[in-house]
Write a structure and sequence with these properties.
The termini are far apart. The radius of gyration is 17 Å and the shape is globular. It is an alpha+beta fold. It contains three helices and eight strands; from the N terminus they run H-E-E-H-E-E-E-E-E-E-H. The longest helix is centred in the N-terminal third of the chain and has 20 residues, at about 1-20. It has a single domain, classed as Protein of unknown function DUF192 (Jelly Rolls, Sandwich).
């Protein structure tokens, strides 16, 4: 009895911690005529959590990761259940490169070598391709650190 009570309490504590970590602000970004409702991951814990454990995401929703300073960045999909595309974006809002990522993998998806980025924008897999958004184009209304 004590053992099963311990597991229930531990599971509830883990669920509460998960819910607490999932507190993100939001903003509206634009990519040409396309509006994006983006959650903002600007702190270390928020960037670590990212879109983990989500089972779906609205068609024009995403998450923008704001890094502390421009540098080469890499993303992975540990505990991420939905396929995503990520655009790596420089400090001026220009897309440096776009990578497609498969769920629950540990493969690294990185910004292009020699091109420091300040942001990464994760969207549903293929969103950038379907909207004809390519490297060299800009994302507007990015949050400042």
């Amino acid at each position: 009895m004590k053992k099963s009570l311990f597991y229930i309490v531990a599971a509830l504590a883990a669920a509460a911690a998960q819910a607490q970590n999932a507190q993100f602000g939001s903003t509206t970004l634009s990519a040409g005529v396309n509006l994006i409702q983006a959650e903002v991951a600007a702190t270390g814990p928020q960037r670590e959590q990212g879109l983990m454990f989500r089972e779906q995401m609205a068609p024009n929703a995403g998450m923008v990761f704001v890094f502390d300073s421009p540098s080469r960045q890499c993303m992975w999909m540990k505990n991420t259940l939905i396929p995503l595309s990520v655009a790596f974006i420089d400090a001026d809002g220009k897309i440096v490169n776009i990578e497609d990522m498969q769920p629950q993998t540990l493969d690294s998806h990185c910004s292009a070598k020699g091109k420091p980025v300040l942001y990464a924008l994760e969207m549903n897999l293929g969103w950038f391709r379907h909207k004809n958004i390519k490297p060299g184009m800009s994302i507007a209304r990015l949050p400042k650190k």
